[in-house]
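Retro notes (design track)

What went well: tokenization of the new backbones is finally stable.
What didn't: we kept losing track of which sequence belonged to which structure.
Fix going forward: every design gets posted as structure first, then sequence, in one message. First example under the new rule, 99 residues:
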């Protein structure tokens, strides 16, 4: 029997890829509307970047993400390595963007 434990809602388009952090505390998802990071216990999530993201993967320690399919300009797609973003930013912290 299948049982839904939690639904993570917030993407406004197709979700292409999802990955669990190595510690199981976070989930990252990439889709038409960008990259999101989620708290796997509470379901709290936030948009990290609003650029098309087709693939995401944590490194083995969970400190970085490989993000694929990010449109850098109209002609190029790239794989970008970023520090793992926190689910909740400290008050007053600007939202980071991909390079």
């Amino acid at each position: 029997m299948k049982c839904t434990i939690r639904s993570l809602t917030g993407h406004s388009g197709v979700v292409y890829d999802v990955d669990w952090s190595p510690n199981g505390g976070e989930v990252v998802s990439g889709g038409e509307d960008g990259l999101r990071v989620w708290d796997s216990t509470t379901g709290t999530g936030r948009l990290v970047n609003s650029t098309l993201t087709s693939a995401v993967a944590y490194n083995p320690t969970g400190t970085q993400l490989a993000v694929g399919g990010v449109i850098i300009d109209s002609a190029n797609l790239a794989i970008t390595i970023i520090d793992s973003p926190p689910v909740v930013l400290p008050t007053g912290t600007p939202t980071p963007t991909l390079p």
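Added context from the reviewer: Residues 93-99 have pLDDT under 50 and may be disordered.
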